[in-house]
Amino acid sequence: MPDLTLTDGYRPALGLRETERAIKFIKDYFQDHLAAALNLQRVSAPLFLRKGSGINDDLNGVEAKAGFRIKDDGYAEVECLFSLAKWKRMVLADYGFASGEGLYTDMNAIRPDEECLDNLHSVYVDQWDWERIINGQERNLDFLKGIVRTIYAVLQETEKVVAGRYPHIAPLLPEEIAFVHAEELLERWPDVGPRERENRITRERGAVFVIGIGGELADGTIHDGRAPDYDDWVTPTVNGCKGLNGDILLWYPLLDRAFEISSMGIRVNADALQQQLQIRGALNRRQFEWHKRLLAGELPLSIGGGIGQSRLCMFFLRKLHVGEVHASVWPQWMIDRCKAAGITLL
After folding, report:
1. Active site residue 111
2. Which pLDDT tens digit goes with each residue over 116-175?
3. Does the annotation count 83 as an active-site position?
4. Counted domains in the chain
């Protein structure tokens, strides 16, 4: 049975209807200020894509996609999204965005192979997907850190506004976000796994950006899986480390654990794509139209990522379970245990 954290004496800070009002307030405020900070324009996004297009995110490459057939299109097969990581970059090119400009959109995904339905994980995933064009001189670690700090500043401002609206919800975020490479975490705590390393560094610092997700570490392992065709996890940076991507983690006392709020990074250029496809044994993807366009230089250099909408609301509203801020399907045993603990799953 998956892990489920239930805290004795937990009581939601807000009732159901006030929670729904607060969710809308947080989403409106955060997306407007994120767009202003990163110079992003909102665009419409698909819920599903044609199977075999090569555009859908493959996550770790093993998860099954929910799909169906379209009757009036010769029963063409389509698949529900995992994310819009590659789709966004294509849109930047096709819509005529310029360097320094970007887009954001609402991404709604279904992930039926989610390994562990618990306080933070659901079959339904909702996030802001964003992408911004950069130039060749900006494909470096310092630029990545600057964008992370900009996003973190919007998180801090949103938390302050929420605390002003609901005074009984005190701010948790530290003044600054720390940066650490996955290689440094392995060196510091070689005897525990990646999740526990994240817990230890985030408990210590409060807010952390873990760099280098997907590439091989010194012991031959990877910190976490990343598909080979969006984030750049192979480019050398400093001190023998590799990777121009990472995760934003926040310490969440209610669950006594690190809380991933965003996965993001500088995207692959043609060289990095070739290397990463080879490492993953996925060179066959070069036959897909999206990959052909990138290798031909038809897609812009970019940086982008996803920011969890429900997770953000859960964090700012001090909820114990993500099901308190979005509706999904949950195992009956989880519904029963949460109900007995006074937690209403939407």
Report:
1. yes
2. 788 888 888 899 999 999 999 999 999 999 999 999 999 999 999 999 999 999 999 999
3. no
4. 1
